[in-house]
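FORM 7B - TANDEM STRUCTURE REPORT

SECTION 1: FIRST PROTEIN
SEQUENCE AND C-ALPHA COORDINATES:
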Amino acid sequence: MKVAAIQMVSAIEREANLARAHALLAEAAAEGAELAVLPEYFCMMGARDTDKLGLRETAGTGTVQNFLADAAREFGLWIVGGTLPLETEDDNHVFNSSLVYSPDGVCVARYDKIHLFYFDNGRERYDERRVIAPGSRPVLFDLPSRDGHRWRVGLSVCYDLRFPELYRALAREGAELMLVPSAFTRTTGAAHWEVLLRARAIENLAWVVAPAQGGTHENGRHTWGQSMVVDPWGTVVAQQPVDEAVVLFDIDAQQVDRARAQLPALSHCVL
Protein backbone atom coordinates (compact mmCIF):
# COMPACT_ATOMS: atom_id res chain seq x y z
CA MET A 1 0.00 0.00 0.00
CA LYS A 2 1.36 3.39 -0.95
CA VAL A 3 1.22 5.85 1.93
CA ALA A 4 1.78 9.61 1.96
CA ALA A 5 3.16 11.50 4.94
CA ILE A 6 2.30 15.13 4.25
CA GLN A 7 4.61 17.79 5.60
CA MET A 8 3.30 21.34 6.03
CA VAL A 9 4.32 24.71 7.41
CA SER A 10 0.90 25.76 8.61
CA ALA A 11 -0.03 29.42 8.97
CA ILE A 12 -2.46 31.26 11.23
CA GLU A 13 -5.45 31.45 8.86
CA ARG A 14 -7.48 28.23 8.70
CA GLU A 15 -8.67 28.69 5.11
CA ALA A 16 -5.13 29.16 3.79
CA ASN A 17 -4.05 25.96 5.51
CA LEU A 18 -6.97 24.01 4.11
CA ALA A 19 -6.13 25.24 0.62
CA ARG A 20 -2.52 24.05 1.00
CA ALA A 21 -3.66 20.73 2.46
CA HIS A 22 -6.01 20.24 -0.50
CA ALA A 23 -3.18 20.76 -2.97
CA LEU A 24 -0.91 18.33 -1.13
CA LEU A 25 -3.66 15.70 -0.88
CA ALA A 26 -4.24 16.09 -4.63
CA GLU A 27 -0.53 15.44 -5.19
CA ALA A 28 -0.64 12.34 -2.98
CA ALA A 29 -3.65 10.98 -4.85
CA ALA A 30 -2.04 11.67 -8.23
CA GLU A 31 0.99 9.67 -7.10
CA GLY A 32 -1.20 6.67 -6.27
CA ALA A 33 -1.38 6.91 -2.49
CA GLU A 34 -4.15 5.00 -0.73
CA LEU A 35 -3.57 6.58 2.67
CA ALA A 36 -2.56 10.21 3.24
CA VAL A 37 -1.72 11.49 6.72
CA LEU A 38 -1.68 15.21 7.50
CA PRO A 39 0.46 16.61 10.36
CA GLU A 40 -0.61 17.79 13.78
CA TYR A 41 -2.26 21.24 13.68
CA PHE A 42 -2.47 21.04 9.87
CA CYS A 43 -5.46 23.39 9.89
CA MET A 44 -3.94 26.09 12.08
CA MET A 45 -0.85 27.22 13.95
CA GLY A 46 -2.38 30.10 15.88
CA ALA A 47 -0.77 33.33 16.94
CA ARG A 48 -1.39 32.13 20.51
CA ASP A 49 -2.43 28.83 22.10
CA THR A 50 -5.91 30.09 22.91
CA ASP A 51 -6.67 30.54 19.20
CA LYS A 52 -7.55 26.84 19.20
CA LEU A 53 -10.59 27.64 21.33
CA GLY A 54 -12.03 29.92 18.67
CA LEU A 55 -11.77 27.23 15.98
CA ARG A 56 -13.13 24.33 18.00
CA GLU A 57 -15.67 22.11 16.28
CA THR A 58 -18.39 19.80 17.49
CA ALA A 59 -17.63 16.19 16.64
CA GLY A 60 -19.40 15.33 13.40
CA THR A 61 -19.76 18.83 11.98
CA GLY A 62 -17.57 21.80 11.17
CA THR A 63 -15.42 23.44 8.52
CA VAL A 64 -12.37 21.23 8.96
CA GLN A 65 -14.33 18.00 9.31
CA ASN A 66 -16.32 18.82 6.18
CA PHE A 67 -13.07 19.56 4.35
CA LEU A 68 -11.60 16.19 5.30
CA ALA A 69 -14.75 14.29 4.33
CA ASP A 70 -15.04 16.10 1.00
CA ALA A 71 -11.33 15.60 0.19
CA ALA A 72 -11.54 11.87 0.99
CA ARG A 73 -14.45 11.52 -1.45
CA GLU A 74 -12.91 13.77 -4.08
CA PHE A 75 -9.57 11.94 -4.17
CA GLY A 76 -10.72 8.44 -3.20
CA LEU A 77 -8.25 8.48 -0.31
CA TRP A 78 -8.09 7.29 3.22
CA ILE A 79 -7.21 10.54 5.03
CA VAL A 80 -6.00 11.03 8.56
CA GLY A 81 -6.55 14.65 9.54
CA GLY A 82 -3.45 15.12 11.68
CA THR A 83 -5.21 17.02 14.43
CA LEU A 84 -7.94 19.60 14.82
CA PRO A 85 -9.56 21.12 17.92
CA LEU A 86 -12.79 19.43 19.04
CA GLU A 87 -14.97 20.68 21.84
CA THR A 88 -14.95 19.37 25.39
CA GLU A 89 -17.41 19.99 28.22
CA ASP A 90 -15.05 22.75 29.38
CA ASP A 91 -15.17 26.05 27.48
CA ASN A 92 -11.49 26.69 28.27
CA HIS A 93 -10.13 23.49 26.72
CA VAL A 94 -10.38 21.46 23.51
CA PHE A 95 -9.37 17.97 22.54
CA ASN A 96 -6.47 17.73 20.08
CA SER A 97 -8.07 15.11 17.87
CA SER A 98 -6.94 12.97 14.97
CA LEU A 99 -9.80 11.92 12.67
CA VAL A 100 -9.76 9.15 10.08
CA TYR A 101 -11.90 9.32 6.92
CA SER A 102 -12.55 6.48 4.50
CA PRO A 103 -12.65 7.14 0.72
CA ASP A 104 -16.43 7.52 0.88
CA GLY A 105 -16.03 10.44 3.28
CA VAL A 106 -17.13 8.67 6.46
CA CYS A 107 -15.27 9.35 9.72
CA VAL A 108 -14.33 5.86 10.92
CA ALA A 109 -12.08 6.67 13.89
CA ARG A 110 -11.24 9.44 16.32
CA TYR A 111 -8.23 9.62 18.62
CA ASP A 112 -7.84 12.35 21.23
CA LYS A 113 -4.18 13.00 22.05
CA ILE A 114 -3.45 11.43 25.43
CA HIS A 115 -0.06 12.87 26.42
CA LEU A 116 0.19 16.68 26.56
CA PHE A 117 3.47 18.42 25.80
CA TYR A 118 5.29 20.46 28.43
CA PHE A 119 8.77 21.88 27.86
CA ASP A 120 10.68 24.71 29.51
CA ASN A 121 14.40 25.18 28.98
CA GLY A 122 14.46 28.80 30.10
CA ARG A 123 14.27 30.10 26.52
CA GLU A 124 11.33 28.19 25.10
CA ARG A 125 8.22 27.23 27.02
CA TYR A 126 5.26 25.12 25.91
CA ASP A 127 2.38 23.84 28.01
CA GLU A 128 -0.44 22.18 26.08
CA ARG A 129 -2.37 21.62 29.30
CA ARG A 130 -3.39 25.28 29.27
CA VAL A 131 -5.93 24.75 26.47
CA ILE A 132 -5.98 21.03 25.66
CA ALA A 133 -7.80 18.28 27.55
CA PRO A 134 -6.16 14.83 27.40
CA GLY A 135 -7.71 11.83 25.74
CA SER A 136 -7.98 8.58 27.66
CA ARG A 137 -7.77 5.56 25.37
CA PRO A 138 -5.73 4.07 22.52
CA VAL A 139 -7.49 3.85 19.16
CA LEU A 140 -7.00 1.58 16.14
CA PHE A 141 -8.87 1.21 12.87
CA ASP A 142 -8.93 -1.29 10.00
CA LEU A 143 -7.99 -0.22 6.49
CA PRO A 144 -8.74 -2.69 3.66
CA SER A 145 -6.14 -1.91 0.98
CA ARG A 146 -6.53 -2.43 -2.74
CA ASP A 147 -4.34 -5.55 -2.68
CA GLY A 148 -6.77 -7.28 -0.32
CA HIS A 149 -4.80 -6.93 2.89
CA ARG A 150 -6.67 -5.51 5.87
CA TRP A 151 -4.24 -3.24 7.69
CA ARG A 152 -4.56 -2.75 11.42
CA VAL A 153 -3.57 0.87 12.07
CA GLY A 154 -2.76 2.50 15.42
CA LEU A 155 -3.17 6.22 16.07
CA SER A 156 -0.97 8.56 18.09
CA VAL A 157 0.07 12.22 18.06
CA CYS A 158 3.41 13.98 18.56
CA TYR A 159 4.30 13.95 22.30
CA ASP A 160 2.75 10.46 22.58
CA LEU A 161 5.95 9.31 20.88
CA ARG A 162 7.81 9.51 24.20
CA PHE A 163 5.54 6.95 25.84
CA PRO A 164 6.34 3.45 24.50
CA GLU A 165 3.58 1.83 26.52
CA LEU A 166 0.99 3.38 24.20
CA TYR A 167 2.60 1.78 21.15
CA ARG A 168 2.97 -1.56 22.88
CA ALA A 169 -0.74 -1.42 23.67
CA LEU A 170 -1.44 -0.78 19.98
CA ALA A 171 0.84 -3.65 18.95
CA ARG A 172 -0.92 -6.00 21.36
CA GLU A 173 -4.15 -5.11 19.56
CA GLY A 174 -2.57 -6.11 16.26
CA ALA A 175 -1.24 -2.81 14.90
CA GLU A 176 1.03 -3.31 11.89
CA LEU A 177 1.17 0.40 11.04
CA MET A 178 1.47 3.25 13.53
CA LEU A 179 0.79 6.87 12.64
CA VAL A 180 2.45 9.82 14.39
CA PRO A 181 1.24 13.19 13.01
CA SER A 182 3.40 15.76 14.78
CA ALA A 183 4.61 19.31 15.26
CA PHE A 184 7.89 18.68 17.07
CA THR A 185 9.85 21.76 18.05
CA ARG A 186 13.19 22.31 16.37
CA THR A 187 14.96 21.91 19.74
CA THR A 188 13.41 18.62 20.78
CA GLY A 189 13.18 17.31 17.23
CA ALA A 190 16.89 17.71 16.54
CA ALA A 191 17.67 15.71 19.65
CA HIS A 192 15.01 13.01 19.75
CA TRP A 193 12.63 12.79 16.76
CA GLU A 194 14.32 10.19 14.57
CA VAL A 195 15.62 7.99 17.37
CA LEU A 196 12.17 7.81 19.00
CA LEU A 197 10.41 6.96 15.73
CA ARG A 198 12.93 4.25 14.94
CA ALA A 199 12.65 2.88 18.48
CA ARG A 200 8.85 2.62 18.25
CA ALA A 201 9.19 0.74 14.95
CA ILE A 202 11.89 -1.58 16.29
CA GLU A 203 10.14 -2.32 19.60
CA ASN A 204 6.89 -3.24 17.91
CA LEU A 205 8.20 -4.58 14.59
CA ALA A 206 5.74 -2.30 12.82
CA TRP A 207 5.70 0.36 10.12
CA VAL A 208 5.72 3.93 11.41
CA VAL A 209 4.50 6.87 9.31
CA ALA A 210 5.19 10.29 10.82
CA PRO A 211 4.09 13.46 8.96
CA ALA A 212 5.28 16.66 10.60
CA GLN A 213 5.19 20.41 10.57
CA GLY A 214 8.50 21.52 9.12
CA GLY A 215 9.79 25.07 9.00
CA THR A 216 9.40 28.61 10.31
CA HIS A 217 5.75 29.49 10.84
CA GLU A 218 3.89 32.75 10.52
CA ASN A 219 3.48 32.82 14.31
CA GLY A 220 7.26 32.61 14.79
CA ARG A 221 7.35 28.99 15.88
CA HIS A 222 10.09 26.74 14.50
CA THR A 223 9.20 23.10 13.84
CA TRP A 224 11.63 20.32 13.07
CA GLY A 225 10.10 18.63 10.03
CA GLN A 226 11.87 15.44 8.95
CA SER A 227 8.60 13.69 8.06
CA MET A 228 9.47 10.06 7.54
CA VAL A 229 8.47 6.47 6.98
CA VAL A 230 10.25 3.83 9.07
CA ASP A 231 10.10 0.10 8.31
CA PRO A 232 9.57 -2.68 10.89
CA TRP A 233 13.35 -3.19 11.23
CA GLY A 234 13.85 0.47 12.14
CA THR A 235 15.22 1.69 8.81
CA VAL A 236 14.22 5.14 7.61
CA VAL A 237 13.03 4.43 4.07
CA ALA A 238 11.66 7.87 3.10
CA GLN A 239 12.19 11.33 4.53
CA GLN A 240 11.76 15.07 3.89
CA PRO A 241 13.94 17.58 5.81
CA VAL A 242 11.89 20.81 5.85
CA ASP A 243 9.23 22.73 3.89
CA GLU A 244 6.05 21.42 2.29
CA ALA A 245 6.27 17.99 0.73
CA VAL A 246 4.50 14.70 0.15
CA VAL A 247 6.64 11.80 1.41
CA LEU A 248 5.58 8.63 -0.41
CA PHE A 249 6.45 4.99 0.15
CA ASP A 250 5.00 1.56 -0.64
CA ILE A 251 4.67 -0.32 2.64
CA ASP A 252 4.41 -4.10 2.69
CA ALA A 253 2.47 -6.09 5.29
CA GLN A 254 4.61 -9.16 4.59
CA GLN A 255 7.60 -7.23 5.90
CA VAL A 256 5.86 -7.02 9.27
CA ASP A 257 5.15 -10.75 9.20
CA ARG A 258 8.74 -11.60 8.32
CA ALA A 259 10.20 -9.37 11.02
CA ARG A 260 7.88 -10.75 13.69
CA ALA A 261 8.57 -14.34 12.64
CA GLN A 262 12.36 -13.86 12.65
CA LEU A 263 12.38 -11.93 15.92
CA PRO A 264 9.22 -12.77 17.89
CA ALA A 265 9.93 -10.18 20.58
CA LEU A 266 6.27 -9.30 21.04
CA SER A 267 5.56 -12.85 22.20
CA HIS A 268 8.48 -12.67 24.64
CA CYS A 269 7.03 -9.78 26.68
CA VAL A 270 7.01 -10.57 30.38
CA LEU A 271 5.66 -7.37 31.93
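SECTION 2: SECOND PROTEIN
SEQUENCE AND C-ALPHA COORDINATES:
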Amino acid sequence: MSPRTLRLPSWLPVDAYILALFGTVVVAVLLPASGAAADVAGGASTGAVALLFFLYGSRLSTADALDGVRHWRLHLTVLGATFVLFPLLGLASEGLVPYVLTPQLQSGFLFLCLVPSTIQSSIAFTSLARGNVPAAICAGSFSSIAGIVITPLLAALLLGGTGGGFSADSLVRIVLQLLVPFLAGQLLRRWTTGFLGRHRKILGHVDRGSILLVVYTAFSEGMVAGTGHQVTPLRLVALLAAEAVLLTVMLLITWHGAKRLGFGRADRIAIQFAGSKKSLASGLPMAGVLFGAHASLAVLPLMLFHQMQLMVCAVIAKHRSREPEETETVGVPVPAAV
Protein backbone atom coordinates (compact mmCIF):
# COMPACT_ATOMS: atom_id res chain seq x y z
CA MET A 1 0.00 0.00 0.00
CA SER A 2 2.93 2.28 -0.12
CA PRO A 3 2.76 5.34 -2.36
CA ARG A 4 4.52 5.18 -5.72
CA THR A 5 8.15 6.27 -5.57
CA LEU A 6 9.15 9.20 -7.76
CA ARG A 7 12.46 9.06 -9.60
CA LEU A 8 15.41 11.22 -8.59
CA PRO A 9 19.02 11.29 -9.85
CA SER A 10 20.80 8.09 -8.83
CA TRP A 11 23.35 10.02 -6.81
CA LEU A 12 20.64 11.35 -4.50
CA PRO A 13 19.61 8.48 -2.17
CA VAL A 14 16.39 10.16 -1.05
CA ASP A 15 12.85 9.21 -2.01
CA ALA A 16 11.32 12.22 -3.79
CA TYR A 17 7.98 11.53 -2.17
CA ILE A 18 9.60 11.85 1.24
CA LEU A 19 10.90 15.25 0.17
CA ALA A 20 7.34 16.22 -0.74
CA LEU A 21 6.12 14.97 2.64
CA PHE A 22 8.66 17.00 4.57
CA GLY A 23 7.94 19.99 2.34
CA THR A 24 4.29 19.63 3.35
CA VAL A 25 5.37 19.61 7.00
CA VAL A 26 7.24 22.87 6.47
CA VAL A 27 4.15 24.45 4.89
CA ALA A 28 2.02 23.26 7.82
CA VAL A 29 4.49 24.72 10.32
CA LEU A 30 4.64 28.08 8.54
CA LEU A 31 1.00 28.26 7.43
CA PRO A 32 -1.11 26.00 9.67
CA ALA A 33 -4.82 25.78 8.98
CA SER A 34 -6.93 27.16 11.80
CA GLY A 35 -10.56 28.07 12.44
CA ALA A 36 -12.83 27.54 9.44
CA ALA A 37 -9.86 26.58 7.26
CA ALA A 38 -9.00 23.79 9.71
CA ASP A 39 -12.57 22.49 9.52
CA VAL A 40 -12.37 22.42 5.72
CA ALA A 41 -8.95 20.74 5.76
CA GLY A 42 -10.15 18.18 8.31
CA GLY A 43 -13.22 17.30 6.29
CA ALA A 44 -11.17 17.02 3.09
CA SER A 45 -8.63 14.83 4.90
CA THR A 46 -11.37 12.50 6.17
CA GLY A 47 -12.75 12.13 2.65
CA ALA A 48 -9.26 11.59 1.22
CA VAL A 49 -8.57 8.78 3.70
CA ALA A 50 -11.84 7.04 2.81
CA LEU A 51 -11.02 7.38 -0.91
CA LEU A 52 -7.52 5.97 -0.35
CA PHE A 53 -8.81 2.82 1.30
CA PHE A 54 -11.56 2.40 -1.28
CA LEU A 55 -8.85 2.46 -3.97
CA TYR A 56 -6.73 0.01 -1.97
CA GLY A 57 -9.65 -2.39 -1.77
CA SER A 58 -10.41 -2.01 -5.47
CA ARG A 59 -6.82 -2.70 -6.52
CA LEU A 60 -6.10 -5.67 -4.31
CA SER A 61 -6.70 -8.90 -6.19
CA THR A 62 -8.43 -11.36 -3.90
CA ALA A 63 -7.50 -14.19 -6.26
CA ASP A 64 -3.78 -13.34 -6.02
CA ALA A 65 -4.01 -13.32 -2.24
CA LEU A 66 -5.80 -16.66 -2.14
CA ASP A 67 -3.23 -18.17 -4.50
CA GLY A 68 -0.58 -17.53 -1.90
CA VAL A 69 -2.34 -19.33 0.95
CA ARG A 70 -0.45 -22.51 0.11
CA HIS A 71 2.74 -20.78 1.33
CA TRP A 72 1.20 -20.25 4.74
CA ARG A 73 4.41 -20.74 6.77
CA LEU A 74 6.07 -17.83 5.02
CA HIS A 75 3.07 -15.56 5.48
CA LEU A 76 2.73 -16.42 9.16
CA THR A 77 6.42 -15.65 9.58
CA VAL A 78 5.99 -12.21 8.01
CA LEU A 79 2.86 -11.52 10.06
CA GLY A 80 4.70 -12.60 13.21
CA ALA A 81 7.57 -10.21 12.46
CA THR A 82 5.17 -7.37 11.64
CA PHE A 83 2.62 -7.70 14.42
CA VAL A 84 4.53 -9.54 17.19
CA LEU A 85 8.27 -8.85 17.04
CA PHE A 86 7.95 -5.21 15.98
CA PRO A 87 5.42 -4.38 18.75
CA LEU A 88 7.62 -6.11 21.36
CA LEU A 89 10.56 -3.94 20.31
CA GLY A 90 8.27 -0.93 20.38
CA LEU A 91 7.29 -1.74 23.96
CA ALA A 92 10.97 -2.09 24.87
CA SER A 93 11.47 1.51 23.74
CA GLU A 94 9.68 2.63 26.90
CA GLY A 95 13.09 2.24 28.51
CA LEU A 96 14.32 5.16 26.39
CA VAL A 97 11.93 7.60 28.14
CA PRO A 98 12.74 10.30 29.19
CA TYR A 99 16.48 10.24 28.55
CA VAL A 100 16.41 9.47 24.82
CA LEU A 101 12.80 9.93 23.69
CA THR A 102 10.01 12.08 25.03
CA PRO A 103 6.79 10.25 25.97
CA GLN A 104 5.10 11.65 22.84
CA LEU A 105 7.90 10.52 20.52
CA GLN A 106 7.95 7.12 22.19
CA SER A 107 4.22 6.78 21.47
CA GLY A 108 4.94 7.55 17.82
CA PHE A 109 7.85 5.08 17.85
CA LEU A 110 5.56 2.40 19.27
CA PHE A 111 2.86 3.25 16.74
CA LEU A 112 5.23 2.76 13.79
CA CYS A 113 5.88 -0.73 15.18
CA LEU A 114 2.16 -1.51 14.94
CA VAL A 115 1.42 -0.59 11.31
CA PRO A 116 1.39 -3.21 8.53
CA SER A 117 4.14 -3.95 6.04
CA THR A 118 4.49 -2.40 2.60
CA ILE A 119 3.57 -4.02 -0.69
CA GLN A 120 5.19 -2.12 -3.55
CA SER A 121 8.68 -1.54 -2.16
CA SER A 122 8.84 -5.05 -0.67
CA ILE A 123 8.07 -6.48 -4.10
CA ALA A 124 10.59 -4.20 -5.81
CA PHE A 125 13.44 -5.08 -3.44
CA THR A 126 12.59 -8.80 -3.47
CA SER A 127 12.64 -8.75 -7.27
CA LEU A 128 15.97 -6.90 -7.37
CA ALA A 129 17.51 -9.39 -4.94
CA ARG A 130 16.16 -12.34 -6.99
CA GLY A 131 13.88 -13.54 -4.21
CA ASN A 132 10.41 -15.08 -4.18
CA VAL A 133 8.36 -12.26 -5.74
CA PRO A 134 4.93 -14.01 -5.65
CA ALA A 135 5.45 -14.66 -1.94
CA ALA A 136 6.36 -11.00 -1.38
CA ILE A 137 3.18 -9.91 -3.18
CA CYS A 138 0.98 -12.18 -1.06
CA ALA A 139 2.79 -11.43 2.20
CA GLY A 140 2.44 -7.69 1.69
CA SER A 141 -1.22 -8.09 0.75
CA PHE A 142 -1.99 -10.23 3.80
CA SER A 143 -0.19 -7.78 6.07
CA SER A 144 -2.08 -4.81 4.62
CA ILE A 145 -5.46 -6.50 4.99
CA ALA A 146 -4.71 -7.73 8.52
CA GLY A 147 -3.37 -4.33 9.53
CA ILE A 148 -6.71 -2.63 9.00
CA VAL A 149 -8.00 -4.68 11.93
CA ILE A 150 -4.88 -5.62 13.91
CA THR A 151 -3.23 -2.17 14.05
CA PRO A 152 -6.19 -0.41 15.75
CA LEU A 153 -6.60 -3.32 18.17
CA LEU A 154 -2.90 -3.27 19.07
CA ALA A 155 -3.10 0.51 19.46
CA ALA A 156 -6.01 0.10 21.87
CA LEU A 157 -4.09 -2.52 23.86
CA LEU A 158 -0.60 -0.96 23.90
CA LEU A 159 -1.11 2.78 23.52
CA GLY A 160 -4.16 3.12 25.72
CA GLY A 161 -4.76 6.75 26.64
CA THR A 162 -1.34 8.04 25.58
CA GLY A 163 -0.46 10.25 22.68
CA GLY A 164 -3.96 11.42 21.91
CA GLY A 165 -5.74 8.35 23.14
CA PHE A 166 -7.48 5.36 21.65
CA SER A 167 -11.18 5.11 22.45
CA ALA A 168 -14.36 3.47 21.27
CA ASP A 169 -14.89 6.57 19.15
CA SER A 170 -11.49 5.99 17.53
CA LEU A 171 -12.47 2.42 16.73
CA VAL A 172 -15.72 3.56 15.13
CA ARG A 173 -13.83 6.10 13.02
CA ILE A 174 -11.31 3.45 11.98
CA VAL A 175 -14.15 1.20 10.83
CA LEU A 176 -16.00 3.97 8.98
CA GLN A 177 -12.99 5.66 7.39
CA LEU A 178 -10.78 2.65 6.67
CA LEU A 179 -12.49 -0.73 6.86
CA VAL A 180 -15.86 0.14 5.26
CA PRO A 181 -14.30 1.88 2.20
CA PHE A 182 -11.80 -0.98 1.83
CA LEU A 183 -14.55 -3.60 1.88
CA ALA A 184 -16.61 -1.49 -0.54
CA GLY A 185 -13.64 -1.42 -2.90
CA GLN A 186 -13.35 -5.20 -2.71
CA LEU A 187 -17.07 -5.70 -3.36
CA LEU A 188 -17.09 -3.30 -6.33
CA ARG A 189 -13.77 -4.47 -7.73
CA ARG A 190 -15.27 -6.30 -10.73
CA TRP A 191 -16.78 -3.00 -11.92
CA THR A 192 -13.91 -0.66 -10.96
CA THR A 193 -10.87 -2.66 -12.12
CA GLY A 194 -11.09 -1.50 -15.74
CA PHE A 195 -11.48 2.16 -14.79
CA LEU A 196 -8.57 1.99 -12.35
CA GLY A 197 -6.37 0.33 -14.94
CA ARG A 198 -7.13 2.99 -17.58
CA HIS A 199 -6.45 5.86 -15.17
CA ARG A 200 -3.59 4.42 -13.17
CA LYS A 201 -1.31 7.44 -13.54
CA ILE A 202 -3.97 9.95 -12.47
CA LEU A 203 -5.02 7.79 -9.52
CA GLY A 204 -1.38 7.55 -8.47
CA HIS A 205 -1.39 11.33 -8.09
CA VAL A 206 -4.65 11.05 -6.13
CA ASP A 207 -2.97 8.57 -3.75
CA ARG A 208 0.02 10.78 -3.12
CA GLY A 209 -2.00 13.98 -2.94
CA SER A 210 -4.38 12.46 -0.41
CA ILE A 211 -1.54 11.44 1.88
CA LEU A 212 0.03 14.89 1.60
CA LEU A 213 -3.30 16.35 2.68
CA VAL A 214 -3.41 14.01 5.68
CA VAL A 215 0.11 15.09 6.67
CA TYR A 216 -0.72 18.79 6.28
CA THR A 217 -3.86 18.44 8.40
CA ALA A 218 -2.05 16.47 11.12
CA PHE A 219 0.83 18.93 11.44
CA SER A 220 -1.50 21.93 11.24
CA GLU A 221 -3.49 20.53 14.16
CA GLY A 222 -0.24 19.92 16.02
CA MET A 223 0.95 23.50 15.51
CA VAL A 224 -2.39 24.95 16.61
CA ALA A 225 -2.43 22.66 19.67
CA GLY A 226 1.14 23.64 20.56
CA THR A 227 2.71 20.20 20.13
CA GLY A 228 4.86 21.18 17.15
CA HIS A 229 7.66 22.70 19.24
CA GLN A 230 8.41 19.63 21.37
CA VAL A 231 11.04 18.06 19.10
CA THR A 232 14.50 19.53 19.56
CA PRO A 233 17.38 18.72 17.16
CA LEU A 234 18.96 16.54 19.84
CA ARG A 235 15.74 14.55 20.29
CA LEU A 236 15.50 14.17 16.51
CA VAL A 237 19.01 12.70 16.35
CA ALA A 238 18.15 10.36 19.23
CA LEU A 239 15.00 9.25 17.41
CA LEU A 240 16.96 8.49 14.25
CA ALA A 241 19.48 6.46 16.25
CA ALA A 242 16.72 4.46 17.91
CA GLU A 243 15.10 3.77 14.54
CA ALA A 244 18.43 2.69 13.04
CA VAL A 245 18.78 0.13 15.84
CA LEU A 246 15.17 -1.02 15.33
CA LEU A 247 15.66 -1.53 11.58
CA THR A 248 18.98 -3.31 12.04
CA VAL A 249 17.53 -5.71 14.61
CA MET A 250 14.55 -6.56 12.40
CA LEU A 251 16.72 -7.09 9.33
CA LEU A 252 18.92 -9.48 11.29
CA ILE A 253 16.02 -11.36 12.87
CA THR A 254 14.07 -11.79 9.62
CA TRP A 255 17.16 -13.01 7.72
CA HIS A 256 18.71 -15.35 10.28
CA GLY A 257 15.40 -16.35 11.85
CA ALA A 258 14.04 -17.41 8.47
CA LYS A 259 17.13 -19.55 7.96
CA ARG A 260 16.61 -21.24 11.33
CA LEU A 261 13.02 -21.96 10.31
CA GLY A 262 14.26 -23.83 7.24
CA PHE A 263 13.38 -21.37 4.47
CA GLY A 264 15.43 -21.27 1.28
CA ARG A 265 17.28 -18.22 0.04
CA ALA A 266 14.47 -16.89 -2.21
CA ASP A 267 11.92 -17.16 0.60
CA ARG A 268 14.30 -15.60 3.12
CA ILE A 269 14.69 -12.58 0.86
CA ALA A 270 10.92 -12.13 0.68
CA ILE A 271 10.63 -12.55 4.45
CA GLN A 272 13.39 -10.05 5.15
CA PHE A 273 11.98 -7.30 2.96
CA ALA A 274 8.32 -7.85 3.81
CA GLY A 275 8.94 -8.47 7.52
CA SER A 276 11.26 -5.56 8.28
CA LYS A 277 9.37 -2.70 6.62
CA LYS A 278 6.44 -0.48 7.55
CA SER A 279 3.80 1.11 5.33
CA LEU A 280 3.70 4.90 5.27
CA ALA A 281 0.49 4.91 3.22
CA SER A 282 -1.37 2.76 5.75
CA GLY A 283 0.15 4.30 8.85
CA LEU A 284 -0.40 7.98 8.12
CA PRO A 285 -4.21 7.81 7.71
CA MET A 286 -4.51 5.56 10.77
CA ALA A 287 -2.43 7.97 12.86
CA GLY A 288 -4.64 10.86 11.83
CA VAL A 289 -7.71 8.97 13.05
CA LEU A 290 -6.12 7.63 16.24
CA PHE A 291 -4.12 10.59 17.52
CA GLY A 292 -6.01 13.71 16.43
CA ALA A 293 -4.09 16.86 17.39
CA HIS A 294 -1.15 14.70 18.53
CA ALA A 295 -0.80 13.03 15.12
CA SER A 296 2.13 15.22 14.10
CA LEU A 297 4.39 13.64 16.74
CA ALA A 298 2.94 10.21 16.02
CA VAL A 299 3.68 10.25 12.27
CA LEU A 300 7.16 11.79 12.48
CA PRO A 301 8.87 8.52 13.55
CA LEU A 302 7.05 6.64 10.77
CA MET A 303 8.06 9.17 8.11
CA LEU A 304 11.71 8.99 9.16
CA PHE A 305 11.68 5.20 9.39
CA HIS A 306 10.12 4.91 5.94
CA GLN A 307 12.97 6.83 4.30
CA MET A 308 15.57 4.92 6.30
CA GLN A 309 14.14 1.53 5.32
CA LEU A 310 14.13 2.46 1.62
CA MET A 311 17.78 3.52 1.68
CA VAL A 312 19.04 0.55 3.68
CA CYS A 313 16.95 -2.07 1.85
CA ALA A 314 18.08 -0.71 -1.51
CA VAL A 315 21.69 -1.36 -0.50
CA ILE A 316 20.87 -4.85 0.78
CA ALA A 317 18.87 -5.75 -2.34
CA LYS A 318 21.74 -4.71 -4.62
CA HIS A 319 24.14 -6.76 -2.50
CA ARG A 320 21.91 -9.85 -2.68
CA SER A 321 21.45 -9.45 -6.45
CA ARG A 322 25.19 -10.02 -6.91
CA GLU A 323 25.24 -13.24 -4.88
CA PRO A 324 25.11 -16.64 -6.60
CA GLU A 325 21.65 -18.09 -6.06
CA GLU A 326 22.99 -21.11 -4.23
CA THR A 327 24.98 -18.99 -1.79
CA GLU A 328 23.60 -18.71 1.73
CA THR A 329 25.19 -15.52 2.91
CA VAL A 330 25.44 -14.96 6.65
CA GLY A 331 24.91 -11.47 7.92
CA VAL A 332 23.06 -8.39 6.84
CA PRO A 333 25.10 -5.48 5.47
CA VAL A 334 24.05 -2.22 7.07
CA PRO A 335 25.53 1.00 5.67
CA ALA A 336 27.80 2.86 8.07
CA ALA A 337 25.83 6.04 7.51
CA VAL A 338 22.79 4.50 9.19
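SECTION 3: OBSERVATIONS ON SECOND PROTEIN
The chain has a mean pLDDT of 80.
The CA atoms of residues 13 and 311 lie 7 Å apart.

SECTION 4: SIGNATURE
Preparer initials: ____
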